[in-house]
Specification:
Number of strands: 11
Number of domains: 2
Strand order of the largest sheet: 5-11-6-7-8
Shape: elongated
Radius of gyration: 33 Å
Structural class: alpha+beta
Largest sheet: 5 strands, antiparallel
Order of helices and strands: HHHHHHEHEHEEHEHEEEEEE
Helix content: 55-70%
Length: 396
């Protein structure tokens, strides 16, 4: 009897140690977030391939419950039959045999505890995970679709730029071979072709600017949305500390490691700083009177890479004229956003980027906003007059 209890205690001690190591090794929140991201990706693929949703959480739970119930019934039947056999033997056997049979009874009881304890743990774990698992909404699926479209757009643009460079190189090589066999006039043409080639190379270098800008802000947007899903909220702030707003930061990295705040103009000069266009603490925006606000040194730095264009037209007007291009930074009276293309924007305004932010409290009459995302999104400013556009050189 003493040996049996020692074995039982060793058994539970081993499982306890394994359980501790398992808990330390796995962050449950990360597991759930990864599972949710995996399921959202699956939903997007199904929508794209079949046009409808086919993953049914209810059916999955029902299947799990069915398997659980079948195994539980089998376990109960096996336990009852084994118990009856032991009971019959105990009644019919002699006194000496009964003493030996006690060890079998102890093993039977321990086996029942382990088996039905495992069933209990299974049920508790599955129920807890079902309750803790974040539910997927249509909005999250839509966001994932837009992210995938944006990623595909960026990859396609990179591919086009690469093809353009390769074609340009091939053209330069052919021109060089042809011009080597011509007279003095051909040499002059060769010089012209060389100058044209240099211009193409400059344009190809400039082409990187818009792609880099959109990719940089896309990185901010993806992090902000990821943090929202994980419960690490970004807030809108103009640094009005007395009205409940948190402090602002001079770079995305500082904001990420700080209190996670941004606003419509801030993500633009964060990107300009990360691209090496401007220095820290250099911003540019249009104030409530429509005047361009920036230091002259800041304007001069930006003009090396972009044109600052006075427009006084709405984005819809500019688009209908063919004068709204991907990467255009639109400055309105007290607002800024960035055009991506195909009617989509990056917008870190309080309500200008549709579905991006929501008010969750008020301090001294000032609504405090949290971001779900900053794009890609539709914009409520498409019919508001933009005072200026900052257009990177490859779009001029």
């Amino acid at each position: 009897m003493k040996k049996t209890f020692i074995i039982i205690w060793i058994f539970f001690f081993i499982f306890y140690i394994l359980g501790i190591n398992h808990v330390n090794a796995i962050n449950v929140t990360d597991v759930l977030d990864s599972a949710k991201s995996f399921e959202i990706a699956g939903q997007v693929e199904i929508i794209e391939n079949d046009g409808n949703l086919q993953i049914d959480d209810g059916k999955l739970k029902q299947a799990s419950d069915t398997v659980y119930n079948i195994l539980l019934v089998i376990g109960i039947i096996a336990a009852v039959i084994t118990g009856l056999i032991i009971a019959i033997k105990f009644i019919l056997c002699s006194a000496n045999e009964k003493a030996e049979l006690k060890n079998t009874i102890i093993a039977y009881i321990i086996g029942c505890i382990i088996i039905f304890g495992a069933f209990g743990i299974w049920k508790i774990v599955v129920t807890s995970l079902n309750e803790a698992s974040p539910k997927i909404t249509e909005e999250e699926i839509r966001i994932a679709q837009e992210e995938k479209e944006e990623k595909n757009r960026i990859e396609e643009q990179k591919k086009k730029e690469q093809d353009k460079k390769e074609n340009g190189s091939a053209t330069d090589s052919n021109n060089s071979n042809d011009n080597s066999d011509t007279n003095e006039n051909s040499n002059n043409d060769s010089k012209n072709n060389t100058n044209s080639s240099k211009t193409d190379k400059v344009e190809n270098e400039d082409n990187k600017n818009v792609t880099t800008l959109l990719n940089t802000i896309a990185g901010y947007a993806q992090q902000i949305e990821k943090d929202y899903r994980a419960g690490r909220y970004w807030e809108y702030s103009n640094n009005k500390r007395g009205l409940g707003e948190k402090r602002t930061y001079n770079s995305f990295k500082d904001a990420l490691n700080g209190e996670r705040t941004t606003n419509c103009a801030r993500i633009v000069f964060w990107a300009f700083y990360d691209m090496g266009i401007t220095n820290q603490k250099e911003d540019i925006y249009s104030n409530s009177s429509g005047e361009l606000k920036a230091k002259e040194s800041t304007k001069n730095r930006i003009k090396k890479y972009a044109r600052i264009i006075r427009v006084n037209k709405t984005p819809n007007q500019l688009r209908s004229e063919g004068n709204l291009k991907p990467g255009d930074i639109c400055l309105y009276t007290s607002h800024t956003n960035i055009y991506i293309g195909n009617g989509k924007w990056y917008d870190a305004g309080r309500g200008s980027g549709i579905g991006n932010a929501y008010s969750y409290k008020s301090v001294n009459g000032n609504a405090i906003y949290r971001f779900k995302r900053v794009g890609p999104c539709n914009s409520s400013y498409v019919n508001h007059k933009a005072t200026y556009i900052i257009r990177l050189k490859d779009q001029t």
